[in-house]
Design brief:
The complex is a heterodimer of chains A (112) and B (580). By secondary structure, chain A is mainly β. In chain A, 10% of the residues lie in helices and 31% in strands. Chain A has one domain: Ubiquitin-like (UB roll) (Roll), CATH 3.10.20.30. Chain A is built from one helix and seven strands, in the order ββαβββββ. The radius of gyration of chain B is 23 Å and the shape is globular. Classes of the chains: A mainly beta (112), B alpha+beta (580). Chains A and B meet through helix 1 of A and helix 4, strand 5, helix 12 and helix 14 of B. Bound molecules: flavin-adenine dinucleotide (FAD) and FE2/S2 (inorganic) cluster (FES).
Chain lengths: 112, 580
């Protein structure tokens, strides 16, 4: 059973005007948004930036983003038929695309 | 940017964080760098099951008993000195973690009057020896406790999103490393009196795996390129009952193990019969079969046309009353229901999945590698588990080896300060595995990209993961291994140099991909070469063309990188009673 999801993904750096790229992603029902994002990096656009680590366990909490306007984990929200809009968190500084500066300040490399 | 420290710890999972704490409490300055986020990037935070240590909380137990079980599981190939230090020191580390508030499950239950620490019998252990944190929360609790401790320990500078890409070897000693900051792709040099590799395992090399995104074996490649010796690289552990279908989200694919030993799930073939006992393992709900045996049994059933619909086995809890399920796993039952899985009504499908790497950096019982100034800890270390690891020993290994490596590295740094020739650092990066056509690293490439028009590293990594799964996976044969080797070498020589890499970018994921692929290919080659040379089946290494265990192969393979190829040397295990 294969379906197609449409992921509309916000692109760009800090302070950039809203710009979206749209990707058609094949999937099997039950798969996660993160499955879709990983598919895009492997098959369509390797430059797409988003954070994730644990993929399945939902323990690293890094994949949090705005999914259709609401904050959620890409690894637990599922792909669905039709369009899903993905945007970076609204309350964090954007680094690029869906990745925000979520590293605790103490653990950042101060530039010198 | 240039940094300088006494001890550099690469990777901040359980092993790296413990190493940093142990080094800092002797007074050393420590830099703890993780390409991901401190404490979150690797396997440690994902562990859901147990941690083994002879604590004698449930019944009398000794570290010698633990050692005997560990050696038996290792199929004669364990490095006994490493296995001994693991079993001897595990209780001390577990008590220290207890004191730091990890919250091992205790008799009397959550929040109630705390009794003794609960210990269960995980497969292969002869005693109730395995501790856990409810519910399926062992890894997050261990990682969270250590992360907090790292934050409170003076002398540790923890850096998230800093990837280490090469070791710097000067006058035969490791003197630090090179890397880059993920945030903006900027280069970084770290001079260090001693360096600890704590980068975890390599199961991300496999299409079907329980790995996080950061487990492509980069630490093994760091060691190999610098000229250190690796051992047992052919032994990749496949976890027999990884979740297969239906798709589960938000739950780890290896979560079924604790269900089995707490509740006695039944493993059934496509015709709903129990089958493990046909392969020499007694099961009858007691679940004692080791991982290698269960993997073998499931594969044979599938081959014989008796698999489940998606090509695995059924795991059924329909005989367990709902109240009992809820008592044992509380909120997890609801998470399963959200995934459409009602365990009281339906079985799930399971199949083997790449899970852990027994091989790794060759170290002595003080975690010293074969290169001066270089230490390793955790899953990055090879040898303790031999041909097959016991459930619950990996977290113990991370804690025990982390503590030793940190302490020993600090001691070394104390007497070997300085010696870093900054000007020569980049030039003295050694790559003993480099061949004439090895790709230049992006940091040495001028301009915007490393190559134009090539396939992306992300795409090539996908291909490599499928190749490893089908040809260097749970079942291997010579034609498959040779085909894999050909393709891996071609990818190293032809594809890697053409991978496009943006020079500097905010969130440098393509630069990270490039380094990951470079290392993954080298490590994949090491696994394949070692698997090809071991013409027998033993533990996790199963050859279809050599199904028997051969006495002549009772030994370990040492792997080095030499002049563009991987060299493998067989060293027999010393006969019993011979001093090491
Ligand atoms: C899903 C799962 C469940 C498990 N359950 C159990 C269990 O119940 N009991 C048990 O005993 N074992 C279990 N294991 C095995 C065990 O978790 C691991 O062996 C152990 O945690 C490894 O710890 P570590 O510190 O060596 O590595 P990890 O915890 O994997 O940490 C390695 C770190 O290194 C970082 N890193 C990698 N490369 C670089 C680089 N180039 N530069 C900088 N940083 C880098 C990574 O980002 C990561 O944070 C499980 C494994 C998995 C995958
Ligand atoms: S990827 Fe780890 S929580 Fe989503």
């Amino acid at each position: 059973m294969s379906a197609t999801a449409v992921l509309k993904v916000a692109r760009g750096g800090p302070g950039d005007a809203d710009r979206f790229d749209t990707f058609e992603v094949p999937y099997t029902p039950g798969q996660s948004i993160l499955d879709g994002l990983m598919w895009i990096r492997e098959h369509a656009d390797a430059s797409l930036a988003f954070r994730f680590a644990c993929i399945n366990a939902n323990v690293c909490k890094e994949c949090v983003m705005r999914i259709d306007g609401k904050n959620g984990y890409a690894c637990t929200e599922r792909l669905k038929p039709g369009e899903t809009v993905l945007e970076p968190l609204a309350n964090k500084r954007r680094v690029r695309d869906l990745a925000c500066d979520t590293v605790p300040p103490k653990e950042r490399l101060a530039r010198g | 940017m240039h940094l300088s420290t006494d001890v550099l710890v690469i990777g901040a999972g359980g092993a790296g964080m413990y190493a940093a704490i142990a080094a800092a409490r002797t007074g050393a300055q420590v830099i703890l760098a993780d390409k991901n986020m401190i404490g979150r990037g690797g396997a440690t935070i994902m562990a859901q099951m147990t941690v083994a240590a002879a604590l004698s909380e449930e019944e009398p137990d000794t570290w010698e008993d633990h050692l005997a079980d560990t050696l038996a599981a290792g199929r004669g190939l364990c490095d006994e000195a490493l296995a001994e230090v693991l079993c001897r020191s595990a209780p001390e580390r577990m008590r220290e973690m207890d004191g730091w508030g990890v919250g091992w499950a205790r008799a009397g239950g959550l929040g109630g009057h705390a009794g003794h620490i609960r210990q269960v019998t995980a497969p292969g252990h002869g005693r109730r020896r395995c501790c856990y944190v409810d519910f399926l929360n062992t890894g997050p609790a261990v990682a969270g406790t250590l992360r907090k401790r790292v934050g409170r320990t003076a002398g540790i500078r923890a850096l998230s999103n800093v990837a280490i890409t090469d070791l710097v070897v000067q006058e035969g000693s490791v003197r630090g490393a090179l890397g880059f900051a993920f945030g903006d792709g900027a280069e970084l040099d770290v001079a260090a009196g001693a360096t600890v590799i704590a980068t975890g395992g390599l199961t991300r090399l496999y299409a079907r795996s329980s790995a996080s995104n950061n487990m492509a074996g980069e630490g093994y490649a760091l060691a190999l390129r610098a000229g250190a010796v690796l051992v047992d690289m052919e032994f990749v552990q496949f976890f027999p009952i990884g979740h297969l279908a239906p798709r589960l989200v938000g739950m780890d694919p290896i979560m079924w193990d604790p269900f089995r030993y707490k509740l006695g799930g039944r493993l059934l073939n496509g015709t709903m019969e129990e089958f493990i006992d046909r392969y020499g393992g007694e099961d009858d709900g007691r679940y004692t079969a080791t991982r290698d045996l269960a993997t073998h049994a499931i594969r044979r059933e599938v081959d014989a046309g008796r698999g489940s619909p998606s090509g695995g086995a059924w795991l059924s809890f329909t005989h367990v009353p709902e109240a009992e399920l809820r008592h044992a796993f509380g909120p997890v039952i609801d998470r399963l229901l959200k995934n459409g899985i009602d365990l009281t009504r339906r079985p799930v499908e399971v199949a083997p999945i790449a899970h852990y790497h027994m091989g790794g950096v060759k170290v002595d019982a003080r975690m010293r590698s074969t290169l001066a100034g270089l230490y390793a800890a955790g899953e990055a270390v090879g040898g303790a588990a031999g041909a097959n690891r016991l459930s619950g020993n990996a977290i113990s290994e991370a804690l025990v080896y982390g503590e030793i490596a940190g302490r020993e590295a600090a001691r070394h740094a104390g007497s070997h300060a300085g010696g870093w020739d900054g000007g020569a650092a980049a030039a003295t990066v050694r790559d003993t595995a480099a061949g004439p056509r090895t790709a230049p690293t992006p940091r040495t490439v001028a301009g915007g990209s490393n190559g134009a028009g090539g396939t992306s590293a992300a795409t090539l990594m996908g291909e490599l993961r499928r190749l490893m799964w089908t040809k260097v996976g749970p079942f291997r044969d010579r034609p498959g291994l040779l085909a894999a080797l050909d393709r891996i070498r071609a990818m190293r020589a032809d594809d890697l140099p053409r991978v496009p890499v943006p020079r500097e970018t905010a969130f440098a994921n393509e630069l990270a991909d490039w380094h990951e692929l470079r290392s993954a290919l080298l490590v994949a080659e090491a696994v394949t070469v070692a698997a090809l040379a071991r013409e027998e089946s033993r533990g996790a290494h199963q050859r279809e063309d050599f199904p028997e265990t051969a006495a002549g192969f009772r030994g370990n393979q040492r792997v080095t990188g030499q002049a563009g190829t991987i060299a493998c040397r067989f060293v027999p295990v010393a006969p019993e009673g011979v001093a090491r």
